[in-house]
Amino acid sequence: MAISSIAILGGDLRQCYCAEYLLSLGWQVTCFHTLDFPYCGNIRFAPSLSEALPGAEVILAPTPLSKDSIHLYQANSQKPPCPLADLWDSLMPGQILAAHSIPEKTAAMLSEKGCKAFQLSQGEDFTAENSRLTAEGLLSEMIRQTPFSLSSANVLLLGYGHCGAAIGSMLLHICRSIYVLEWDLTKQSHAREQGLCPITPADFPETLPQCSLLANTIPAPVLEPKQLRDLPGSCHIFDIASAPFGFPTDITEKFLLPYFRVPGIPGRFSPAAAGQIIGKTIERILDYGL
User: Do residues 91 and 143 both lie within one domain?
Assistant: First the structure.
């Protein structure tokens, strides 16, 4: 493969490790507003978008793309904010924008500009590896935040997508029992085959009072106030869903339930592995001639 070029924008340590990985493959790497990091090699740092993007075949946006839908996400708060509008205006026809997920309106706008969109979340290998890192990080956080042994815990897992399946598989060998709330019949069947116990809301009166751990992967409210009151006061809730999340931030105040919102787990707990996974996925973009 010919030498490729990439501009890596903002984000957290995942972007830094991705830059290091692609540099090791011989890519020309330019960073803009990434974190301060002990980079090695010939990574170029651009002071502006107008200097970062020209010549780049691929532009890697951060995960998440934005936290306020207005500015590019930057963990480095010392850098001036970068409006998303400036990024869209700076893109040139033929360039590929890679991001974890890209809204439909944004994808349509990129197409009109003659740019291509690549969503990391649509890659099977990326999704599987990222879900595994998410499960590992959640386990670490559960051990750190709970005062009891996980081996005695009954767990309620909300959602059985990629992350839910990875979490269930990991906790299955540690916890006492795992109940799974999932509406998709195929996913219910898969959970049952893995040794988990699929339930429906009709099972809540019997199930909720037994739960000492709740892990949520669904970005929407699932449990109603009455059902939250059925959880024991010692039930620790871990919410890894993306915005708008599964529970309000005042749940501890209103229901006296320990609540931990844990977004962006791979970037917090395994940034080196997560960054390399992103880099390997980016590498395949040109290999497969996207």
Answer: no
